[in-house]
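Exercise: predict the fold of this chain.
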Amino acid sequence: MTGASSGIGLAIADMLGQEGYALTVAARRPDKLEAAADGLRAKGYTVEHVAGNLGDEDVINGVVAAHEATYGRLDVLVNNAGIGMGEPVDALTTKKVDIQLNTNLRAIFLFYRAAMPMLRAAGAEHKNALVVNTSSISGIRGEAWLGVYSATKHGVVGYTQAMNKELATAGIKSTALCPGFVDTPMTDFVKEHVPAETMITPTDIAEGVRFLLRTSTGCVVPEIRFEQPAGGLEALPG
């Protein structure tokens, strides 16, 4: 799984470890990822970790190859790595546009492609292989100042829907996670407007994924929305 060094990704990795899955975790920063992997191992989980820029095709292929070399099979793929960079449309920075497109969207396409042989094998075996793609509530409704981020997260939802149609007969199911503000370092920029204690927790998201692990072969969940009782993205600075 990607983006696993903190926040939502680490919470999902912890939950998968609890459920008995051996893990390959990936993230950009080696020191932070190694600390997270060591913490997971300390809980008794089997963990491989691979650091690198998850917007890079060679890194993506390397993560999947490392997982296959270590475990030989893949039942659950979690595409969680993502980045949000807010800018008004008048002042979009091309580099920031490209980083968000590569990390939030293009990487998901490439992870599917690289992992497809193992996912197809799992689907053929038990008809319940699972891919989880982290989108956002802004992938459901676009937000001012987060236009590029919103567009990439809309793309995640659309690609998830397309994969469910394309892979339905292969026993591979896909779900897009669409949370509002989650209390992670990624939302520190807005916590003066949206208090952390009012936010969704990473554990909430992980428990949603635990539910997906328990669904029958006849049940596909295209997306899960996690919303706060009130407020939310409308509280962003305009």
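Check your answer against the key: The radius of gyration is 17 Å.
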